[in-house]
Write a sequence for this structure.
């Protein structure tokens, strides 16, 4: 090769026998191959996970087919398995969590990104990032010892007293159940909504804000009428991300949800989520159909979180691309 | 006109207060959590807690020494699996990649990141427990390591990409081969950021319980080596918290405090100390 | 499949580098006898410091599943394995009774300190979801003089695969035709009502913290947590409380006619003083154990358990094995090869 390469991209792409030898002797090719192998290991592991889920659930899929998704019966004695109570429980607890966490998280994100002075915003963001690091089992611990008694003695009776005419708030006040699990989930996903929404809001180009302010808007009006609508898709993305996280949450929910595969209209009643039934019953499922049914539930959960995560990333990508004009992978 | 202006100003102030309140509520959750743990767990974090083994069921006393060591072992294995794959994979994506392979790798890494931890536990059971016919710290560490991979991979790629072109070209101009450039210039430049990511990934998996239920299982005694089931802090917290014994509850609080303390200390250290180095380099 | 084997080989290879001097035996299963098992394994470890038997109480269902999957060296269950399950296992598994215990009805009713009496019909009705209030006639009739409120009964059952559930539902199936046809017996059943707790520990915890709740646990869990245990009407018509004597009385009939494989149900036993919801609990040991050192260690433990181990029973409210059963078991140990 006559001329030395001038840019990084061309450094590794020269062909020809002499170049190949030179590359090999300098260790570049080896390095490239080795790192390629490790990069592909990630793909391998993911593929294996999907393969295992698919293969191990085959027996259940064959036995129950579509009926699996509409049957409420979970009966290991008579080998009848239906996913509906768990899908219901997963969706209800997650929806409850989102209902509480989204307004709260969005409000906080707007405050941190747009309205608060820089120093306060930075400190609070730092603290909220720490909240995101708290392990699930700690939330479960606090849920069991602090929240559940509170729900049972104060909150649930109060709800029954005031809103008890609604079927949503009827039945005994157990303390554990859908509502408690939803509350715990809400606290867990709030930090995610805050941090991603904040990033998305910060990515909105300054011109939007400044144009609005130049027209005489108050700080809030500029935020609410110019910045937030611009970042709307990204905020949706953050909501989806938080939802995906809530769907897969295991420990905290298992400790407070009541572990009863029943579909009840009342939020005060006990329920069950896919992740919880896996945690409770997987190590003791005897018989291949039982195990297969559980794995099929795991497959359902995996697909659910996969789809929602994918949507989330798409939405966030769209917003940040629009904002900065440069593709951010 | 004045009335309208006054209204808009009021709305502005009210919304400022409301959103500020939201932020305050979110942040206060952190302080509540810490507060309760310190209050309930503080008195039971004793020397016994760190040095003794659990007592038989129903007897009070004992500690979680084996769980603490067990968690340490699990994190070691997790790091040995997660760091090489994540780091080297990230290097490939940032330095060598073309179009398709990086796209596929990034896509599957994101997919892996979204897999619920209980599903990873089920997978690890099928792959690392069943074929060898026992539960082990290795299987548990394997499950945790898988969870670390996407975090480290994407972070490494991002931080390596962030190293200024000028540094790379300088090295190449001096005649360095690609690998030499990577190993002696680019990597060290991004090193503190990458270490940040690794430590954060470790802190994240240190608290994971679900994947350990069917892999590391549990152990009343010391777990020798890495091939036997082992106790771990998160699983002990879970087991003791749902049990009936008051003594178990006290120990669960103490263990919760220790675990949260560990996780928070790593997070705080990493975000303050190491990030300072990162932002200095970036600018 | 090959990928699994590859990872497995990797794991094995790394295990080979770890020297193991002590005998590490892993077991899992029933929570019913967990208090005495944990005491036993602790004491045995003190006597034989190089033998460590790590028992994880994950429920009888887990004990069966894991011993069948060969991931533990032996399992434990209070519901004996059915013929189907034994056939599905693909290899021979032996049952070794260890102690006798009682599944008691425990409850948390604020203001009620007396031990409540329950008829079989009342218990079946409560768990079927047909009796929903504490002041239901079925309960008040058996407890004259006790003031019971109109609060809801919060039923608590096991959320995991449980031998205690097996014992409980085995009893209910015997005393209630409706239960037998609608629900049946097993380690994991389709519960008509109730909250689920994980393990006997979880159920006890739930009951302790939930006023108005009622559930079933092994006797020692109620005792250790200061929860009451109700009296149950047995087949002779007497209301009996679970105790060392009443449980041994329930086993008396079965002891003499114990089958060779030790799988027997003693619920709803005859006898005036018998507690009707008693049961043996078993260790599930594979008939063939390749590793000679492990085999000897396990056999050694079983022999110790039948002799010295039994002295720990009374302190934890379990009844000792009847003499006839011990004699038969001693011979059966030789079957582990």
């Amino acid at each position: 090769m006559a001329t030395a390469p001038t840019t990084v991209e061309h450094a590794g792409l020269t062909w020809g026998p002499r170049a190949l030898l030179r590359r090999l002797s300098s260790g570049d090719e080896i390095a490239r191959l080795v790192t390629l192998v490790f990069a592909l290991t990630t793909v391998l592991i993911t593929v294996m996970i999907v393969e295992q889920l698919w293969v191990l659930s085959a027996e259940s899929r064959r036995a129950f087919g579509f009926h699996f998704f509409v049957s409420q019966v979970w009966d290991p004695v008579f080998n009848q398995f239906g996913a509906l109570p768990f899908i219901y429980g997963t969706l209800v607890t997650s929806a409850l969590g989102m209902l509480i966490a989204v307004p709260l998280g969005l409000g906080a994100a707007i405050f941190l990104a747009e309205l608060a002075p820089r120093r306060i915003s930075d400190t609070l963001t730092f603290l909220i990032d720490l909240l995101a690091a708290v392990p699930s089992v700690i939330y479960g611990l606090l849920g069991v010892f602090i929240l559940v008694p509170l729900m049972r003695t104060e909150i649930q009776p109060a709800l029954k007293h005031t809103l008890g005419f609604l079927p949503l708030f009827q039945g005994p006040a157990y303390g554990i159940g859908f509502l408690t699990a939803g509350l715990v989930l809400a606290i867990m996903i709030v930090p995610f909504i805050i941090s991603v929404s904040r990033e998305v809001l910060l990515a909105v180009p300054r011109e939007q804000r400044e144009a609005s302010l130049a027209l005489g808007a108050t700080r809030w009006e500029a935020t609410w009428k110019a910045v937030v609508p611009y970042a709307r898709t990204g905020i949706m993305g953050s909501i989806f991300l938080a939802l995906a996280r809530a769907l897969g949450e295991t420990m905290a929910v298992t400790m407070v949800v009541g572990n009863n595969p029943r579909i009840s209209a009342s939020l005060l009643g006990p329920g069950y989520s896919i992740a919880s039934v896996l945690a409770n019953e997987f190590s003791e499922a005897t018989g291949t159909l039982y195990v297969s049914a559980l794995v099929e539930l795991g497959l359902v959960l995996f697909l659910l979180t996969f789809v929602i995560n994918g949507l989330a990333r798409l939405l966030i990508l769209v917003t940040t691309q629009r904002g900065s004009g440069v593709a951010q992978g | 006109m004045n009335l309208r202006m006054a209204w808009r100003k009021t709305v502005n102030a009210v919304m400022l207060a409301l959103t500020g309140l939201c932020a305050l509520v979110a942040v206060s959750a952190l302080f509540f959590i810490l507060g309760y743990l310190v209050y309930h767990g503080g008195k039971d974090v004793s020397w016994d807690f760190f040095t003794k083994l659990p007592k038989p069921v129903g007897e009070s006393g004992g500690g979680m020494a084996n769980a603490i060591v067990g968690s340490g072992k699990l994190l070691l294995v997790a790091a040995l699996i997660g760091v090489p794959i994540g780091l080297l994979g990230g290097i490939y994506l940032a330095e060598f990649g073309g179009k398709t392979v990086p796209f596929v790798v990034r896509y599957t890494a994101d997919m892996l990141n979204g897999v619920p931890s209980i599903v990873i536990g089920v997978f690890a059971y099928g792959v690392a427990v069943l074929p060898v016919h026992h539960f082990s710290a290795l299987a548990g560490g394997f499950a945790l390591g898988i969870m670390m991979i996407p975090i480290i991979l994407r972070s490494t790629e991002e931080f390596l990409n962030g190293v200024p072109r000028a540094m790379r070209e300088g090295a190449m101009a001096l005649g360095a081969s690609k690998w030499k450039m990577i190993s002696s210039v680019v990597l060290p430049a991004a090193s503190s950021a990458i270490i940040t990511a690794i430590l954060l990934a470790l802190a994240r998996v240190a608290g994971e319980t679900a994947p350990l239920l069917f892999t590391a299982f549990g152990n009343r005694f010391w777990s020798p080596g890495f091939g036997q089931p082992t106790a771990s802090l998160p699983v002990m917290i879970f087991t003791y918290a749902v049990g009936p014994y008051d003594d178990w509850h006290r120990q669960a609080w103490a263990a919760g405090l220790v675990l949260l303390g560990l996780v928070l200390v790593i997070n705080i250290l990493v975000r303050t100390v190491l990030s300072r180095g990162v932002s200095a380099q970036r600018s | 499949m090959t990928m699994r084997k590859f990872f497995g080989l990797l794991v094995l290879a790394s295990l080979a580098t770890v020297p193991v001097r002590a005998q590490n035996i892993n077991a899992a299963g029933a929570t019913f006898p967990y208090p005495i098992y944990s005491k036993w394994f602790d004491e045995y470890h003190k006597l034989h410091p190089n033998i460590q038997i790590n028992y994880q109480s994950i429920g009888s269902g887990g004990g069966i599943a894991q011993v069948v999957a060969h991931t533990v060296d032996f399992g434990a269950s209070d519901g004996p394995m059915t013929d189907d399950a034994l056939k599905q296992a693909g290899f021979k598994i032996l049952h070794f009774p260890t102690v006798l215990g009682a599944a008691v009805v425990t409850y948390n009713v604020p203001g009620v300190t007396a031990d409540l009496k329950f008829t079989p019909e009342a218990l079946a009705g409560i768990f079927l979801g047909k009796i929903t209030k504490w002041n239901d006639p079925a309960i008040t009739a058996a407890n004259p003089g006790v003031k019971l409120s109109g609060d809801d009964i919060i039923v608590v059952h096991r959320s995991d695969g449980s031998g205690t559930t097996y014992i409980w539902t085995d009893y209910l199936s015997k005393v209630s035709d409706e239960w037998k046809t609608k629900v049946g017996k097993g380690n994991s059943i389709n519960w008509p009502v109730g909250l689920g707790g994980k393990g006997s520990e979880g159920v006890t915890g739930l009951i302790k913290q939930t006023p108005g709740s009622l559930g079933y646990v092994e006797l020692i869990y109620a005792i250790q947590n200061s929860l009451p245990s109700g009296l149950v009407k047995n087949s002779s018509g007497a209301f009996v409380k679970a105790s060392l004597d009443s449980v041994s009385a329930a086993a008396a009939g079965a002891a003499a006619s114990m089958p060779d494989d030790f799988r027997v149900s003693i619920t709803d036993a005859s006898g005036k003083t018998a507690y009707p919801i008693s049961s043996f609990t078993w260790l599930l040991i594979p008939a063939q154990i390749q590793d000679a050192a492990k085999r000897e260690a396990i056999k050694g433990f079983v022999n110790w358990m039948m002799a010295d181990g039994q002295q720990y029973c009374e302190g934890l409210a379990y009844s000792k094995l009847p003499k006839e059963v011990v004699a038969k078991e001693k011979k059966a140990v030789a079957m582990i090869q």
